[in-house]
């Protein structure tokens, strides 16, 4: 179990010494302000002049991001600022070509220090931002605000909204603290709307004054692409980690799991009184190899590396937190054991880990622990804690998903909010597992998540908040529904969740209930809420003229066009709705009957569209599908078929209610549960 809520105080900012050198932007002024990055040909959209950091594309199309910027703060085109000795020579050529670098932001410090907080300016407000900050040693969560004072300690990144530059290539600005040498960094709030970037080594013996590569700023008109491109640039130029697209997922991501640790709520014996033991950094590889080779030899196919960020507490005598982390992460013997992929990282939600520990790790926890009740005794915690968990996972996936496949953690299938949790796990795109106690299984819930062979209908991508949930507070603003999107092979899905009722208290520095917010909220969905173009293999679905939409809870089938009015809905507290979107295709013609068709999926599953493996139709009026699972197969067809076939045998079907066509399929173990369905 995790310790109580923690917080780190805002570091005291040392005044800029008069003798400290004032560093100007690298290269010519024009190049730094509106020139071209040497690596990619992309224009640098940022300018630092007269104490003001601006973003824009020219006169009349700029916006101030920070004012009152001190003279020791620098701005450099990122390709020039990146450390050539650390540049990633192993970056795939296609990634290197995509790395559109904007600018590196940093500072110099007046005296050599192991912890160097620098006020980098004021955030003129109101300007909406979304951020993620570390609220415990190893857990992080989202936070939205409008002013510098709204920032929280240990902020891992900030996404600023710049609506006045919409369409000009800079509607969103992403600020990303980095690792530079033996220092890592984070953002803190400062006085009078100030923004502080703090670089720290974690050891008094490791000091520095030059932090000109300690952060990166990137701009664009698509918030998802802005973040993706920023981490891509960091990957290519920093070179200490790999992105998720460079790594294979472990096989356990596709199989249902049972977490026995929390099923029995095992207690850990106190091994070392009053302290933490540490194997010498140069022996970390031997430690992992001895454990992992033994486990692999016994048939274990994967491991979970937990309590990752305890390392920062024991780094003083080992070269600081960055150097100690490198030694331990490099020592992970996953490449030798567990097929090179069989590992889940946990309690790792800090940028140290993601920038240093993800060369091979491809899956990790996206949220804090699942709590079946409030450990502090709030009787309503059994409900509101579940929404907090869900929001943490959704927003953390925005950045963690760049490195790893987010793991939304286990839950209990007989919990009061079991179906609420199950719906999010069904479409999260990560592993699905529970911590049920013996005999405490909710089989009705589990059957909606898992195939009889133990595999799961996993989405193609990882779930992310929809655009209209950016800069919002779906926990206690009394109006925002958490909406997450994901993609299947032949459609998309939107999950809508009422998570209102709890959240972070910035004064008390802890999560607590907001009982006045635990009430119904309303929202809407539309086809454009699904980011169809985020993957090349699903981008064509964005061009559909219409979509069939299935509501999981009400079992309604609707038809929408991209211009239709959105579907309105209201959710009770701790409740949800899943909307499956399937593009409508016109089949037939040239003498055959024309029909509009869309495959929805097996509606007995929460991620019903994940059951559709293949869909084929030619110039005739016949559609053939491969469907995994058993139960009710739903498709949309505006024309009643002449007959239906399942595995070559004629099958009964129901048709009506505006094109709602239902046919039963059964699980056939000899065919790995796959049925061949034909509608003629």
Could you explain how this protein is built, in words?
With 680 residues, the protein is α+β, with helices and mostly antiparallel strands. It has three domains: 29-239, no CATH class; 246-269 and 277-458, TIM Barrel (Alpha-Beta Barrel); 584-679, Immunoglobulin-like. Helix 6 (284-297) packs parallel to helix 7 (320-331). The longest helix is centred in the middle third of the chain and has 20 residues, at 381-400. The termini are far apart.
**H/I helix tally:** 11
Helix content: 10-25%
Domain tally: 3
With strands numbered from the N-terminus, the spatial order across the biggest sheet is 4-5-13-10-9-7-8
Number of strands: 39
Low-confidence residue ranges: 1-5, 15-41
How many angstroms separate the termini? 56 Å
Strand portion, in percent?
25-35%
Largest sheet: 7 strands, antiparallel
CA-based shape: globular
Structural class: alpha+beta
Mean pLDDT: 89
Query: What radius of gyration results from the CA coordinates?
Result: 26 Å
Write a concise keyword list for the protein shown above.
680 residues; alpha+beta; TIM Barrel; 7-stranded antiparallel β-sheet; 15% helix; disordered N terminus
Fold topology:
Layout: H1 29-34, E1 46-49, E2 52-56, E3 62-67, E4 73-77, H2 78-81, H3 93-98, E5 103-113, E6 115-122, E7 129-134, E8 140-145, E9 155-161, E10 172-177, E11 184-189, E12 194-200, E13 208-220, H4 223-238, E14 257-258, H5 260-264, H6 284-297, E15 303-305, H7 320-331, E16 343-345, H8 351-356, E17 363-365, H9 381-400, E18 405-407, H10 418-427, E19 433-434, H11 443-446, E20 464-465, E21 482-488, E22 491-497, E23 502-505, E24 510-513, E25 521-525, E26 547-551, E27 557-560, E28 567-571, E29 576-583, E30 585-589, E31 592-602, E32 612-617, E33 623-628, E34 631-637, E35 644-646, E36 649-651, E37 653-656, E38 660-665, E39 674-679
